[in-house]
Here is the input.
Amino acid sequence: MTPIKPSQGASGARILGIGAYRPRRRVTNDELAQTMDTNDEWIQGRVGIAERRWAAEDETLVEMAVAAGGKAIAASGLAPSEIDMVVVASASLRVPIPGIGPQVGHRLGVNRPGAFDLNAGCAGFCYALGVVDNAIRTGAARNALVVGVERLTDVTDLTDRGTAVIFADGAGAAVVGAADEPGIGPVAWGSDGDQHTAIAIPEGLPHMTMAGQAVYRWATTKLTETLQAAMDRAGVTAADIDVFAPHQANLRIIESMAKKLGFGEKTVIARDIVQSGNTSAASIPLALSALIESGEAKSGDLALVLGYGAGLTFAGQVLRLP
Ligand code: UT7
Here is the structure.
């Protein structure tokens, strides 16, 4: 029998560059209060959002993904021709065929990459990072582009105060490349499919519904162990974490997780939700990019990330920032 050669890859993978795209239009809480029964005090107090970005017609998923991806490639120092894998995480594709990964790669000048879309709800970016980390370490890819992009306003009832004040649009991206020293820790991922109806577009409806309180309870009680597992698998403790950037779903969830993990003054906590709202698969790279741009996060910092959402899915890992 002719043996099949085993795959051989790099000993590690690390993020080489991060980029983001924020839609032009800012929507304040006061603006929303003009069309629905809500107010700035409720939104800031219960969710922590002061404003969010809503995409215009021309700010399509592909355009936003290309803009964020282009910035990540520029920051990585790689040429597009050196990238051989493109994964686009999104939960708001209105047209399922074709997926947008190949188009995003093509638009960015990436030559015939392995390309596909991934839907793991708001956990999509961290799932995608886990996939490309494994691909690079097994030799299936050398350098990969990961994009999280959403137009949640397309799948949100913009007259429903329960969801319209929360969900928003945007894109974030990272280039991941082969490295001698691992810069991405083993992914801690999983799902609770028994709660698949908690965040969903129910059959026959054009819009998303969310059992907010149930998801809130789940996020604040069940996910601390996943954050701990991500740190354990990477061989680090909470004291080693410089930046905590969980999915930006609710400021109160972010603060609760940070408190449970014992993060003090030394750890920078991502609070991009205040300016960006909940952008699902885009929220973590958007938050990391904002912290890098402001100088709050520095090159070489250890970041702990965790995505969670529709599915219900969750995925987290420890990252070395570029
Ligand atoms: O991204 C995927 C993961 N998603 C999450 O992690 C979301 C988790 N859930 C949450 O963040 C919160 O549950 C929400 C922000 C969605 C809602 O906050 P809440 O504190 O759980 O509010 P609630 O749904 O329990 O509603 C409390 C009250 C209700 O009024 P009554 O029945 O007490 O009179 C709502 O009708 O607040 C009312 N309400 C609002 N009032 C003003 C709900 N939405 C609004 C609003 N403005 N926009």
In short: Residues 38, 42-43, 46-47, 122, 161-162, 165-166, 199, 212-213, 215-216, 219, 249-250, 253, 278, 280, 309 surround oxa(dethia)-CoA (CB under 6 Å).
